[in-house]
Automatic annotation (TrEMBL), chains A, B:
SMART domains: EFh (SM00054). It comes from the Eukaryota. It is found in: Cytoplasm. This is Calpain-B-like Protein. GO terms for cellular component: cytoplasm. CDD domains: EFh_PEF_peflin. Gene3D superfamilies: EF-hand.
């Protein structure tokens, strides 16, 4: 079962992304952009973004996360974003960081199973303990224990996309859908990162 | 609708992967391995694999493709593969290359919509023309025209995984399943590359 969009989703940055951050770039965003745009092309690609983003464990954000985020704001599909698109991405990343830090109560730079369960619950999702375990294991292939902020962002964007696709087919909000093979495949491939 | 596993899937390399290539490494595989294993660690990671694989358009295979392939043969989840796992991967890649070349009749290094439609049909899938168009557009974001061999491999592995997940829920082979939200999400996230 998933939560009610009117309540459970309020704290969910993904839903707010397209709306905010519009307008002229503020000075701090301009400064960030200039730092990230190493080749001074006026455009940022995922590699430039990656070199500027460090997760709480001292590692650069994964390329999956950086490509995903560039792709979300790259409206003209050039593989790069300009200063205005970057302004929105900047706000988006900061909002995710705030969410993550809120659940990373011990400031370890990663969240573990109980923290992820709580985060998802407050986003309006009621998942089984086994499912939360599975999500952690997918992120931490070797130890099955923890998730970094970039993995958390990728997961939340994935869940958001699949939830939208599911909900649009679940008109009676039963939490169950009937779906044909080709439609199933197109949802799965379309929402994959 | 999808094809009959007993007939349509016969030419599908994905299905054969776990079985073949076992045993001691042959000299050509050993030579390839030594070339790819640049740091002489006795293990290959996805970056080393990537530097050795060039698609028909003169570009290295994507990191998604290389990570996917390493992940398929990396049984101990270390992020690397040894010579024995590499032997299987080597056979796997060669089999995909042969399939791709068979459909790339004009030897252009990429396949276009009719060629992809034919390839999928011969693998036992009956997809609508719109779905094949969608697959091409997902691979070629800017021009919506063509697909390279590494994109083809990723697509076929994705389709294979999602088909297996779908089929296991479609016990009566109706081509339609009823699926709950959490199960849907776990399939989607588990099979994503």
């Amino acid at each position: 079962m998933y939560g009610n969009p009117g309540s459970g989703y309020q704290g969910y940055p993904g839903g707010a992304a397209p709306g905010y951050g519009q307008g002229a770039a503020t000075p701090d965003v301009q400064q960030w952009f200039n730092t990230v745009d190493k080749d001074r092309s006026g455009q940022i690609n995922w590699q430039e973004l990656q070199s500027a983003l460090i997760n709480g464990q001292g590692k650069n954000f994964s390329d999956v996360a950086c490509k995903l985020m560039i792709g979300m704001f790259d409206r003209d599909k050039t593989g790069t974003i300009d200063i205005n698109e970057f302004q929105q991405l900047f706000a988006y990343i900061n909002q995710w960081l705030a969410v993550f830090k809120n659940y990373d109560r011990d400031q370890s730079g990663h969240i573990e199973e109980p923290e992820l369960a709580q985060a998802l619950q407050q986003m309006g999702f009621k998942f089984s303990p086994d499912f939360v375990k599975f999500l952690i294991a997918k992120s931490d292939l070797q130890n099955h224990k923890q998730m970094s902020v970039d993995q958390f962002i990728v997961l939340c964007v994935q869940i958001q996309r699949f939830t939208e696709a599911f909900r649009s087919r679940d008109s009676e909000m039963k939490g169950v859908i009937t779906i044909g093979f080709e439609d199933f495949l197109s949802v799965a491939i379309n929402c994959s990162t």
